[in-house]
Amino acid sequence: MDDRKKITLSRPGDGCGRVPLGLTVLVVEDSTYAAEALRLLCLRSGARIRRADSLNSARKHLKVYRPAALIVDLGLPDGSGAELIEECAQASPRIGAILGLSGDSFGEETAIAAGADGFLPKPITSLARFQAEILGGLPPDLHPAATGLPEAEIIHPDPLAYRDDMAHAAELLTVEGDGRILDYVAQFLRGVARSADDACLAEAADVLARARARGTPLASPTARIAGLVQQRLREAQPL
Known about the structure:
The chain folds into 2 domains: about 25-140, Response regulator (Rossmann fold); about 160-235, no CATH class. It is about 50% helix and about 10% strand. By secondary structure, the protein is of the alpha/beta class. The strands form 2 sheets. Strands 2-1-3-6-7 form a 5-stranded parallel sheet, with helices on both faces. A two-stranded antiparallel sheet has the order 4-5. This is Response regulator. InterPro entries: Bact_response_regulator, CheY-like_superfamily, Sig_transdc_resp-reg_receiver. One of its GO terms (biological process) is phosphorelay signal transduction system. Keywords: Phosphoprotein.
């Protein structure tokens, strides 16, 4: 199934500017919080969203249909999102717009090198940036005739989605004896924390990642991560 459709424009003065109305966007993102931000951005843009939380799930989606746009997080539980970007960039027919997504400083360079048309940095909050990146990657025949820009709108995901990510991390931290899980936890929490502008948790995730890379003792950084995750879960509990 091919979901490429002609983009239409919102009515003048409604504050939306040019938006990808009617298009389907496949989001490959393991964080519930980041995916919620993208869902809101798609909703505000009039686009439909489908989500996959791993490379394997994304590939299953892509066997069934071809979305107009693909947004891929670079850090996924079963590998690097750059692999999927490269596969889709080289496929024929090609998806209209392929974007990389990451909270890491090197993310944009990695995504573009893999063949992405654009890049979205975490936190993902700007409607204007979201629409500009998608439209910038689409072929000319799918571009609207006008070039209006959306208002400088900022979206705010549901905090409960952040709690869901913390619960997922807490569960992973109970698994013992596999350093690869700690690698993933550090990567996952770094991206989630940056999406939510949680500098303390992001820094702790960086410390854990560096400890793993250097082969230094993990007990202290792991305990700190676990404590912060539990604190976030307690803070999210209703009164």
